[in-house]
Design goal:
Radius of gyration: 19 Å
Number of helices: 7
Strand order of the largest sheet: 1-8-3-6
CATH superfamily of the largest domain: Jelly Rolls
Number of strands: 11
Structural class: alpha+beta
CATH topology of the largest domain: Jelly Rolls
Helix content: 25-40%
Order of helices and strands: HEEEEEEEEHHHEHHEEH
Distance between the termini: 35 Å
Length: 229
């Protein structure tokens, strides 16, 4: 795990920046970005922001993972996105002038940089490339949300779990999927008990293997087939 001190993390040597909306910044823009950002160490299960609060700025994930979720009337979470290194969290509400409609909490120990609202909006105003990147990101997200809603409404829980495991395999890259059973259930929109039963079925079918709460993907192609991809 990286040091719990971000004095030595700069935008110039940040590998995650290459996967972010700031990847096309020139040397001058990267230097400006480095001056206006501040970095912090976040513990596991530490909130970045909560639903209903006023936005103060955006969060750039240097390392770690964050769940974006909303709560239903009974307080149950519905996870709508899992953000990983390189992603910028919380920028959408910057343009609406409204409060957050979702909450964001770390899933693991994370290194996260912060840019204030005014500084971020100033960057957007003065950098056409960043504006274009944001428009593309918003368009991509709209398509993803449409797919997400369609899957919840039309696919079985088994299909949704298979689809989620493939997606999580991409997010965790060379690592095993490391989510609590409750978070995974909230991600696919089902009860935890149902999720546990389906995972057992997947294990018996040699699709996955579990190591405590971690999930190892054994047969990605069959999961894709089950997901209907």
């Amino acid at each position: 795990m990286p040091e719990k001190n971000h004095k030595h993390i700069t935008c110039q040597n940040c590998v995650s920046r290459e996967k972010s909306l700031f990847d096309t910044f020139c040397t001058t823009d990267v230097g400006r970005l480095n001056k206006i950002k501040s970095c912090s160490y976040f513990k596991k299960n530490q909130p970045l922001f909560i639903e209903g609060s006023l936005p103060r700025g955006v969060y750039c994930l240097n390392q770690g993972k964050v769940k974006i979720f909303a709560r239903g009337e009974e307080g149950k979470e519905q996870i709508i996105h899992l953000a990983s290194s390189g992603e910028i969290v919380g920028f959408r509400v910057m343009f609406s002038g409204e409060t957050y409609k979702v909450s964001a909490t770390t899933l693991e120990e994370s290194n996260i940089c912060f840019i204030s609202k005014n500084d971020f909006l100033d960057l957007v105003d003065t950098n056409p490339t960043l504006r274009k990147g944001i428009m593309q990101e918003l368009s991509r997200e709209l398509a993803e949300r449409a797919t997400f809603i369609t899957n919840l409404a039309q696919k079985s829980v088994r299909e949704r779990l298979a689809s989620a495991l493939v997606l999580l395999d991409d997010i965790y890259e060379n690592e095993m999927v490391n989510l609590t059973r409750e978070d995974l259930a909230n991600f696919i929109g089902t009860a935890t008990e149902t999720l546990i039963r389906l995972l057992k079925d997947f294990k018996e079918e040699n699709l996955v293997k579990t190591h405590a709460r971690q999930i190892e993907i054994l047969d990605r192609e069959r999961l894709l087939y089950i997901a209907g991809a």
